[in-house]
Amino acid sequence: VQLVESGGGLVQAGGSLRLACTVSGFSFDDYAIGWFRQAPGKKREGVSCLSSTGESTTYIDGRFTISTDGAKKSVYLQMNSLKPEDTAVYYCAYIRLATKCSPWVAEYDYWGRGTQVTVSP
Q: What percentage of residues in the chain have a pLDDT greater than 70?
């Protein structure tokens, strides 16, 4: 399984970004794909998740929305009203043989390399 994130960059506070996670190499019917972020000096935290059963969950606040394309080869994270404290490396991750989402890092089997999001004041 390969996951590749894209769409990060520098944005001013109040702006928006849409991250994409392209997933390839999986053939499991049951899975969950999550977005996480890690700011310097902080633990990696769950941002949002969706599962093959149709569950869609956001763990932080309503400014972030997860979605997928029809073929489920890409998962997107729409981030609105960005704040400087949203600055972090954003990762997507995959749990195989899962029917539920999870906010816990340890439950994910595969990870992308991350994409940097920087929000300036």
A: 96
